[in-house]
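Weekly sync, protein design subgroup
Attendees: M.S., D.O., the rotation student, P.L. (late)

Item 1: inverse folding check
M.S. brought a backbone from last month's batch and wanted to see whether the design step gives back something sensible before we order anything. D.O. pointed out we never logged the input encoding, so this time it goes straight into the notes. Structure tokens as presented (236 positions):
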């Protein structure tokens, strides 16, 4: 199947749930049962939403876009495609590997959206989960999240239009050459030039390579690339 064919029909059929454990889990179950490309699961509320590395994704009921789509086949740069699409729709920037953020004047990053790709690419399918704080009221969030979260500040009625815009953006970027996706990602790179650290080292973020891996310049002048894991900001 061509990239154009794979992008066509994204967002249909659709299963909308008032409340579920995780849209990714529901979409994964549907994918295992043979759900076609483009199937989307949305929910007004999640009780067990999650992000990368098993973290909980917390969203007040009815205030966020919560959706997961089934992809057949799986574009090689699917996580980057998703980051570009979400950033373009929301006006945010991308914090490697899978967060979309707003950058404050003091350069602090506030998380606006999360992206989680799961599945079995070797079998030709994946599930792409996206959560966007569309109408979240930050004063209703848990204290530990309030200082790190961002919101579009729109109304609940805007969730459906944002979903439509996101499906269109995903469809568009899935048909673009990899070089265009990478260039668009780099234009919204929230980490480039920042001091970061991770489990085994530290350095300065210097963009991404052709496979979406994070390039880091080490203090000793060397260079490393990270293809997974978690990075944290150093002193701003």
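Designed sequence read out in the meeting:
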């Amino acid at each position: 199947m061509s990239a154009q064919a794979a992008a066509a029909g994204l967002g249909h059929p659709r299963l909308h749930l008032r409340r579920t454990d995780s849209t990714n889990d529901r979409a994964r179950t549907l994918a295992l049962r043979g759900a076609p490309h483009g199937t989307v699961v949305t929910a007004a509320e999640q009780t067990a939403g999650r992000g990368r590395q098993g973290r909980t994704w917390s969203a007040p009921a009815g205030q966020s876009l919560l959706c997961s789509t089934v992809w057949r086949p799986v574009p090689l740069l699917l996580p980057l495609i998703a980051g570009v699409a979400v950033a373009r729709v929301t006006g945010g920037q991308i914090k490697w590997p899978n967060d979309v953020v707003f950058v404050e004047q003091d350069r602090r990053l506030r998380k606006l959206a999360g992206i989680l790709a799961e599945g079995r690419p070797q079998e030709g399918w994946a599930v792409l989960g996206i959560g966007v704080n569309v109408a979240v009221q930050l004063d209703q969030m848990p204290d530990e999240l309030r200082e790190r979260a961002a919101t579009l500040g729109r109304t609940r009625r805007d969730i459906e239009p944002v979903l439509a815009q996101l499906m269109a953006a995903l469809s568009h970027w899935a048909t673009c050459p990899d070089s265009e996706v990478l260039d668009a990602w780099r234009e919204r790179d929230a980490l480039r030039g920042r001091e970061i650290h991770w489990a085994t080292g530290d350095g300065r973020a210097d963009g991404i390579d052709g496979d979406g891996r994070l390039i880091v310049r080490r203090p000793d002048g060397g260079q490393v690339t990270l293809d997974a894991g978690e990075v944290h900001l150093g002193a701003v």
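Discussion: The longest strand covers residues 109-120. Residues 42 and 172 are 20 Å apart (CA to CA).
Action: P.L. to compare against the previous round before Friday.
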